[in-house]
Design a protein that fits this description.
Blueprint: H1 8-22, H2 46-68, E1 76-87, H3 88-92, E2 99-108, E3 112-119, H4 120-130, H5 144-169, E4 173-175, E5 179-183, E6 195-205, E7 209-218, H6 219-226, H7 236-241, E8 279-282, H8 290-294, E9 312-316, E10 319-329, E11 332-340, H9 343-351
Antiparallel strand pairs: 1-6, 2-3, 2-4, 2-5, 3-7, 6-7, 8-9, 9-10, 10-11
Helix pairs in contact: 2-5, 2-6, 4-5
């Protein structure tokens, strides 16, 4: 049409195109467009994924510090968890290379199977750190001793996660003994059957390691956590029409500090005189690696951080209050107080 208007045939064609779009036909010619859910599908909904994402993000803030104590003073940081769901065999194809894997089950308020998967060299570096090698150099071969340390590390990881998960669901989550093995290829991975969830963490250890840690859980665990905090929400219209009853509000008056206490007195401190407190005498302290502690036996000598003849510490409920010297009274050990810690020093101890 030369006058710029549309013919009836052209209008019909445009309407047909709009119908194709609204009816769900593929406007991209069959291209595979990835979803923003990282492959989420099946019975695990986007709202379940969002709930699990929040729980995992919160849990690793507590779990990461608990793992650092196993690495000889090196800090480990787990971050940026990526959650994806696939059938077990399809998930298997997402792994490549050799791995060290540790499996453990949950029972109690949450039931299901866990599998923690380390890249082979990453497992070697972690086990070297746990065995006292500050460089974290991966061994040429992961021996049974190395596997034992990775088993202990994974046990701490999964158990710590169980504690956090249990707090979220308001119950107790128990664990079965951890089982460690080496998977030379993806076919040897002990993935749970059915649809599984893989949580991939960025894992870094003080400049020694920057890699990935994989945590695979079955749908029983994912389903228990996915629904947490996702109860029905009140519609805005309902909220608008509900009016709160009128409430009388008045200012609270607290007594002045010192009110009711006699000059120079301490109030009714007699109420506390029968409270039991634990007094401890500490000869000294030291720090040991896990391997050193496991190697202790009869006749082992542990060197403390105090010199011979130096005063010992007296602690009440874990707080330093005095120093003294060890004496013997009728064949019993005792401590003669030689110095009372000042109030300022006690305050520093409490707040340190």
């Amino acid at each position: 049409m030369g006058d710029g208007s549309l013919s009836q045939d052209e209008i019909d064609a445009l309407l047909q195109g709009a119908d194709d779009i609204t009816s769900g036909s593929d406007p991209f010619g069959g291209m595979d467009i990835p979803s923003s859910g990282g492959g989420m599908g099946g019975s695990f909904s986007p709202s379940d994924q969002a709930s699990l994402q929040g729980i995992v993000n919160s849990a690793i803030l507590t779990v990461s510090p608990s793992l650092s104590g196993y690495l000889g003073g090196k800090n480990i940081v787990l971050s940026n968890p990526v959650i994806e769901s696939r059938p077990s065999e399809a998930m298997r194809s997402a792994f490549s290379g050799s791995f060290v894997q540790v499996s453990m089950d949950y029972a109690g308020s949450i039931n299901g199977k866990n599998l923690v998967v380390f890249n082979y060299n990453d497992a070697g570096s972690i086990s070297s750190l746990m065995m006292g090698d500050d460089t974290g150099a991966a061994p040429a071969e992961i021996t049974e001793a190395h596997q034992s340390t990775i088993q202990e590390f994974s046990n701490q990881f999964i158990s710590s996660m169980a504690t956090q998960f249990g707090a979220k669901v308001g119950g107790t989550v128990n664990t079965t003994p951890a089982v460690v093995s080496i998977a030379r290829n993806q076919s040897e991975l002990r993935l749970p059957p059915g649809e599984v969830i893989r949580i991939t963490y960025d894992m870094s250890i003080d400049g020694i390691l920057n890699s990935k840690l994989y945590h695979v859980i079955d749908m029983n665990i994912a389903g228990s956590l996915g629904g947490v905090g996702s109860g029905p929400q009140m519609q805005p219209q309902q909220q608008y029409h509900q009016h709160a009853p009128q409430t009388q509000i008045s200012t609270v008056r607290f007594p002045q500090m010192g009110e009711g206490i006699a000059p120079g007195g301490f109030g009714d401190i007699s109420l506390l005189l029968d409270v039991e407190m634990t007094m401890t005498v500490e000869l000294g302290r030291t720090s040991k690696l896990v391997k050193d502690i496991l190697g202790l036996g009869e006749g082992s000598i542990i060197e403390l951080d105090k010199l011979a003849g130096e005063p010992v510490d007296l602690l009440v409920n874990g707080k330093l209050i005095a120093k003294g010297e060890v004496v013997v009274i009728d064949e019993n050990f005792g401590v003669r107080v030689t110095d009372i810690v000042s109030q300022d020093e006690r305050f520093k101890t409490v707040n340190g």
